[in-house]
């Protein structure tokens, strides 16, 4: 019985994905057809179609999985220990100092190679 339920879900999911693709295609075709209209109206229409297509896609099995992963990611982001302002400034200063040091080393190497090549060439 479970496999027939899974087949029905898959069949409906396929139909839902067809609707999503049709909505995206309608958006592309409509944007091309109404190319002379105001950009604001075309953008609003595309955003509305994208929202509807997204809502339909979230009703599929893969869409529900994506929504679950997004909820879990939101929970994990809350667990992140963010650096304090002082740690952020110190780390930024270290990175900038290192970038400046590497830039000076590369400039020196470039100048040395340019001097060697120019002395060899003439």
Automatic annotation (TrEMBL):
GO cellular component, one term: plasma membrane
Compartments it resides in: Membrane
Keyword annotations: Cell membrane, Membrane, Protein transport, Translocation, Transmembrane, Transmembrane helix, Transport
Any one Pfam family match given in the protein's UniProt record, by short name: SecE
Gene3D superfamilies, sorted: Preprotein translocase secy subunit
Highest rank taxon of the organism: Bacteria
PROSITE patterns: SECE_SEC61G
Location (main, coarse): membrane
Record's protein name: Protein translocase subunit SecE
Name of the gene: secE
């Amino acid at each position: 019985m479970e496999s027939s339920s899974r087949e029905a879900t898959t069949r409906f999911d396929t139909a839902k994905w067809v609707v999503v693709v049709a909505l995206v295609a309608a958006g592309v075709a409509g944007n091309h057809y109404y190319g002379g209209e105001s950009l604001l109206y075309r953008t609003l229409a595309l955003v509305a179609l994208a929202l509807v297509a997204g809502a339909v896609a979230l009703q599929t099995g893969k869409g529900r999985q994506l929504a679950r992963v997004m909820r879990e990611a939101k929970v994990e982001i809350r667990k992140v220990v963010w650096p304090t302002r002082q740690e952020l400034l110190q780390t930024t200063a270290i990175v900038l100092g290192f970038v400046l040091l590497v830039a000076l080393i590369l400039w020196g190497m470039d100048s040395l190679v340019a001097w060697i090549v120019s002395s060899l060439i003439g």
